[in-house]
Amino acid sequence: MTLMAFGPVAFEVYPLNPQTTDRATEAGFVEKQVIGRRPPLEFVGDGPEEFNISARLFPAKFGGMSSLAVLDAIRASGVPHILIRGDGVPLGWFCLVQVREKSTYLDPAGVGQIIDVDVSMKRADAPGAQGYVAALMRLL
């Protein structure tokens, strides 16, 4: 069962299990200086939007280390990818800004038995079709 998908990466019940999400949006305003009153605000459009996913991996039981590698490749590519909620609602195009991993209960090979993953994204415009297809092919 897919709970969320970011480009080619599926956040599912396992192996990459999302625990929480949070979203922050802003509106852009410009202040106009006037005498004797509070500066009126002029709306100039949408401001920045951020989306974060906190997930957990249990690599010894369910695998999922390859998902971390794909997320890192997406981040390094700088190409926006579509974020889709599990019910099929597209949330928009986002660039992956940061992937943070915290491993606990390390096994003899140094791999965590539990890996907490925080994924931070910022809203972006959709890429051109050719650029997006080329980026996907590099990831796969």
Quick one: CATH class?
Mainly Beta
Which CATH architecture would you pick? Answer: Beta Barrel
How many β-strands, per DSSP? 7
The radius of gyration computed from the alpha-carbon positions, rounded to a whole number of angstroms, is 19 Å
Q: Give the averaged pLDDT, no decimals.
A: 92
Given the C-alpha coordinates, what overall shape results?
elongated
Largest sheet: 7 strands, antiparallel
- Structural class, from secondary structure content? alpha+beta
Low-confidence stretches: none
**Beta-strand content:** over 45%
- Give the domain tally: 1
Quickly count the helices. 3
Notes on the protein architecture:
The chain is α+β, with helices and mostly antiparallel strands and 140 residues long. It has one domain: Elongation Factor Tu (Ef-tu), domain 3, CATH 2.40.30. It contains three helices and seven strands. The protein has helices spanning 59-62, 65-77, 129-139, and strands at residues 2-6, 9-12, 17-31, 41-57, 81-85, 90-106, 112-123. It has a seven-stranded antiparallel sheet. The longest helix has 13 residues, at 65-77. The model has no long low-confidence stretch (mean pLDDT 92).
